[in-house]
Amino acid sequence: MDDIKLAETESRFAELIWQNEPIPSGELVALCERELNWKKSTTYTVLRRLCQKGILQNENAVVTSRIKKEEYMALCSEQVLEDIFEGSLPRFVAAFMSRKKLNRKQIDEIQKLIDSYGE
Question: I need a surface site. Which of 6, 54, 74, 119 has the fewest CB within 10 A?
Fold first, then answer.
């Protein structure tokens, strides 16, 4: 899944799906008209693009996600890590920490995550 990154409009559209799935395509058109001020053709164009990317599916006129929001966010995070930090999580954390200090609660939460995902 090489083309996972979503443009701003695609991201807003995907968010609507994630919040309302499963959603009949007719309801999706009405929702996009109301929330995004889109015409029917725009809704179906963006839906087709996201289906081609493998993020959404439209089966029997019902739209659902093939990738849940959390999985999408994880994939995007991995891509940023690869593209900018050459896959180095410590380099990412060091870059982040150089501009923002953590409070004790945040440190404890991060430590719990590290402990739970450690080998």
Answer: 119
Residues 95, 63: one domain? no
Radius of gyration of the chain measured on its C-alpha atoms: 18
pLDDT band at 57 (very low <50, low <70, confident <90, very high): very high
Q: Are 51 and 67 in contact (CB under 8 A)?
A: no
Q: Distance between CA atoms of 79 and 74, rounded to whole angstroms?
A: 9
Cβ proximity of 102 and 94 under 8 Å: no
> What is the per-residue pLDDT for 5?
82
Domain count, the chain: 2
User: Are β-strands 23-24 and 56-59 bridged in parallel, bridged antiparallel, or unpaired?
Assistant: unpaired
Average pLDDT over the chain, rounded to an integer: 91
